[in-house]
Amino acid sequence: MQIPLQQYGALLANYLKPQWGAVVSLTIALLTSIALQIINPQILSYFIDTIFTGSEARFPQGSLPWAAIAFSAIALLTQVFSLSATYWGETVAWTATNALRSDLVAHCLQLDLSFHKAHTPGELLERVDGDVNALSRFFSQLVIHVFGNGILLIGILVVLWFENPFAGASLTLFAGVALSVLVGLRSGAIAPWAEYRQISAEFYGTLGEQISGREDLCANGAVPYVMYRFHALLQRWLPVYHKARFASTVLWFSSVGLFTLGNAIALALSAYLWKQNAITIGTAYLIFHYTNLLSQPIERIREELEQLQQVEASIYRIRELLSIQPRLKERGGALRPATACAVTFENVYFRYQGQNPDEWTLQNVSFSVAPGQVLGILGRTGSGKSTIARLLLRFYDIQSGEIRLGDSAIAPYCLSQLRQRIGLVTQDVQLFQASVRDNLTFFDPHISDTVILEAMETLLLSPWLKSLPNGLNTQLGAESSGLSAGQAQLLALVRVLLKNPSLVILDEASSRLDPQTEAFLERAIDRLLSNRTGIIIAHRLQTLKRADRILILDQGKVVESGDRQTLVSQSQSQFAQLLNAQTIERP
After folding, report:
1. Helix/strand/coil percentages in the chain, nearest 5
2. Does pLDDT of 367 surpass 90?
3. Ordered domains of the chain (ranges, CATH)
4. What is the pTM (predicted TM-score) of this model?
5. Confidence (pLDDT) at 403
6. Alpha-carbon gap, residue 29 to 85, rounded angstroms
7. Which distant-in-sequence residues (6+ apart) come within 8 Å of 259 by Cβ?
């Protein structure tokens, strides 16, 4: 799983290019700080030589006070530019990682439902946030400490060569060996850190899944099973973490040993060269000081290489996520606006990903709905009713056959335009921790309050809105606390009306409501379906009173289809028998 260098370069180029101004500022601050760190020891060396020999041969007479001022000023400027480099590095990292998060979220939203069925929200959250957080060092500290300290390392070695070639050659060899050892040890920890991140994603995915289902878990006594799953994950997690940390500890131990060896080499060289009168005492100090300074960039590079192990694991997982391509191909065709449209299924075959090739969720399904008509779909659980709604919205593509909206197949059209033409209301309405207005408009500021109020008036919901404490500004809490299932359904109907769709699909929209709320909701649905084509998916026959046509599915096949009144009048029809069995009043 070694990441090629060109992939690092591509990632940096994609997210740093838009910030070229900040990157230039970071580069200037970084290079200036490095230059000042190399210059200042030269002034201190002059002090030592001057005091030790009593002469000022290397500088003009009486320059010691000025040198002291210069040393203090350079030390202060070094801190200022180091702080500036850190500031610009963090700014670049924050902007780059936010851009990467946005790209990942947009990519995940473009993937079809089969992907989201296979990955829990917690796992995706860990990838989008956890893995990207690990990359913040890649965009800031990694650049500062690896690139910057690499330049500092080269600069120190160049100065040592000028001070004394023998010392320069010896410490260059030491630095090369030290970096080679550290880089060689780095690759051994990439796989453990990748495994660690994967188990982390599984843990958060499980956590999110269990928290969302806590009511059912507690009510059915499944808490011990949940805790067993958590303990099993933690038992897998800890050994992997130990393994990854052990590999990092080997890097740390190796660097400490190498720095100790480097100091010993510097002391031995300085003592030998000074005894040979090849260097002054100030130069001896410089060699030892620069060797200590040499340990700083090597240590920083070592730390960043350790972090790079985690970064590589995160980059691998991010690239793996980005490499998943949506099965749905976006097309550019535009749909003609219409108040109502025909719906046609013609010899449609469909199965979900991973399903047995010999099994079909929908098999040779054909039906049609004229513009302005309402189709009622019945069938047992798993017969394929909700799949029809998903296929109309192109959450999935069919294997064979054709689906038409109006006179044209839906496949060539732009997904966003297609879904704008279709309104869907399910029994599980997703509401957000936001105002009623934002929940109705999906945070679209261009929809005015006047339009919202007109929609609510059309659906006879103005009295309900007036009952809210702050009207459209009423804030909905966590999990829409304070709203009943019926009120959530009412909000969903307004959402659909604001889209002004040509086709409205109601998927078990009133299955969990009390009779009074259901009656109120039915009146709103009548208004919503006015001058629109409708599809009503239901278990309860009473909700199909407004249907013009009936479609009955069984194991993915159409077993009965026709005009509702005609089917009611035929005592042998399945629909009539279902009505008789449930003693529903025949309209």
Report:
1. 65, 10, 25
2. yes
3. 5-323 (1.20.1560.10), 343-582 (3.40.50.300)
4. 0.64
5. 93
6. 5
7. 295, 298, 299
